[in-house]
């Protein structure tokens, strides 16, 4: 997220309250689309008569590109103007939403989801910086708190909103973005202040971003396709090999990035142990979380035969508890340490999935067999996300905050992408819906426990004394000698 500490220019906001409304609405839409499509997954599969592997790219296409473009979008915004990039991103997101609503097949739907993700990354990367420049220092804490809660609210409302809209048509889960987005765009043109970092002369590493998309995309493709083709097939082995090569090239590119270019992976930051561990913990946790979200939708609709709207409302408690516990979790982390609280959160999250493995049976029993697990997972998410984010940001020096948080956000989305792919690989070929669901929950338990160990190793969290390369500035012309 683009919130640099360098010199910046900014016109005063006409109305900070309206700026908060516009930014929150846009971030809500981009976050909502990370959750609302999960509930539509079974319906989309029936509509397009395609495999779950092919359909997974409706989810993965969004998260992969979103992750890769967060840092470059923020860097571009720092240079040319955050208001400009935010509004362009919102317009791009709306265009992608319209395209998704009128998609004629899985291929076109995935393509328009990628367009959506480009806009979503531009909006998310600039949103916090716009708020910081619109609000006076005394009111920034409140604005940031509202901004932080938007993602939790989107997660809680995504399933029920999606379920209600699916009663009309799957196309409405994308069309719902349009009126809200247009209103935010019109108001934003009038009230958003422009700001930029005048000291920022570097440009983002777009080649590195492309290599990152290729690496994660090939890895996800290999995982999703392996159950059908076979783990030893040429296509699958080639996908894994290509992912490894592209990943290595990302690292080499980051290590030898040209002068004046900001690498897609800031290797200097990963010399900070707590920051590296927080990123890895988040990636593993989000892999379990992303797989759980989709797996629960598939179980409720296919295992217990819930309708889309019933499943949507049944999934509210978990995200709602996550949102409610986020602020108290942050206070607890400040008192006893981010790492220990996040480790406890991931363990509680794993306990919820373990409850489902032990309790859920073929006969529907939502209140006794499913709801208690949601209580555990919801509280676990609230404890984990808040404190891993705080652990990562507290490990960074002020000058690296924007780059570091954008990289952390990318790890979060990449983890969710791989979680969906691993889930689909795990449940493929299971002997029935319950067996597939149990495989998915077992996967969630394992990934969450790995995240718990990593979070525990983070420790309390501290500010690092890290020296980063100084921004490359354009030298002023040397005056001619005076005779």
Automatic annotation (TrEMBL):
UniProt-annotated location(s): Cell membrane
GO molecular function list: transmembrane transporter activity
Principal location: membrane
Membrane topology: Multi-pass membrane protein
Keyword terms of this UniProt record: Membrane, Transmembrane, Transmembrane helix
Gene Ontology annotations for the cellular component aspect, listed alphabetically: plasma membrane
Domain of life: Bacteria
Transmembrane portions of the chain: 18-41, 53-73, 85-104, 110-132, 144-166, 172-192, 204-223, 235-255, 276-299, 311-329, 341-358, 370-388, 400-428, 440-459
Annotated Major facilitator superfamily (MFS) profile domain residues: 19-463
A Pfam family recorded for this sequence: MFS_1
Protein name: Drug resistance transporter, EmrB/QacA subfamily
Species: Blastococcus aggregatus
Upper taxonomic lineage: Bacteria, Bacillati, Actinomycetota, Actinomycetes, Geodermatophilales
